[in-house]
Amino acid sequence: MIIAALASALAGLLALTVGPWLLTRARWRVFRPRLALGLWLACLLAGAGMLSAALGIVVADAATLTAAGTAGGDWVSTVAAWCGLAVLGCLAAAVGAAAASASADARPYDDALTRLAASPESRVVRDGVEVLVIAGTPGLTALVDPAGRGRVLVGSEFARALGSAGFEAAVAHEVAHVRGRHTLLLRAARLTAVAFSRVPRGLHFEQAVRTLVELIADDAAVRRCGRDAVREALAVQARFAPGCSAELRAQRLYSPFYVL
Q1: What is the C-alpha to C-alpha distance for residues 257 and 33, in angstroms, rounded to an integer?
Q2: How many domains, in total, are found in the chain?
Q3: Rounded to two decimals, what is the model's pTM?
Q4: Is residue 192 assigned to a domain?
Q5: Residue 41 or residue 32, greater confidence
Q6: Residue 15 has pLDDT above 90, yes or no
Q7: What gap in Å lies between CA 18 and CA 15, rounded to an integer?
Q8: Could you tell me which of 103, 151, 114 has the C-alpha nearest to residue 136?
Q9: Does any domain span residue 259?
Q10: CB 69 within 8 A of CB 77
């Protein structure tokens, strides 16, 4: 039973490692972001399933051996089973603590946005998603409400700089994030990156997933508003947030390899 648990755990770790490797090394992912993200999700679910199976085997084996007593050489299997359970518990605790720390760091900013969103400058609805334009946020571009309410927040200065077509493109981009539940994907990516922070390129994994969901949302906005409007919105975003990937994302839209 211990051998089966080890084999399942190793297979799960391999599956969880392959996903980050694909997203940080494969260049085709830039033009096929949905496929790349789907492959990562498949690896994530497969790896989580196999690790859960390993945990189940360890717990069942430990319980069986403990109930049967530790006569003869059985004590070796019992100790191995409980040690394996302890290792898995420590890993889960470490990942949970890191996630809680990241959430605590972001809470002041999230709370400030929530207070500003309580009295928006204007409110519209696009595809069933509420869009709030809020004042008092000079550096804010557009984002999904971090409070998890399934709405989009747009800074008033950013909205005015976008113009009509650019505003619709930016909103379509954020609505795609809401529809795709990308916030949940980014949280899962964060947990995976923390768990594999010591694996080569593990720390780059979260950024790779973040880039993919941005590209997927760009593609959704192009389908709805056209490439020119999305490029216009990305150009304005680059002015409001220097150093972001907006310029590169705009160039991608006109690459000969770009296909919706």
Answers
A1: 13
A2: 1
A3: 0.76
A4: yes
A5: 32
A6: no
A7: 5
A8: 114
A9: no
A10: no
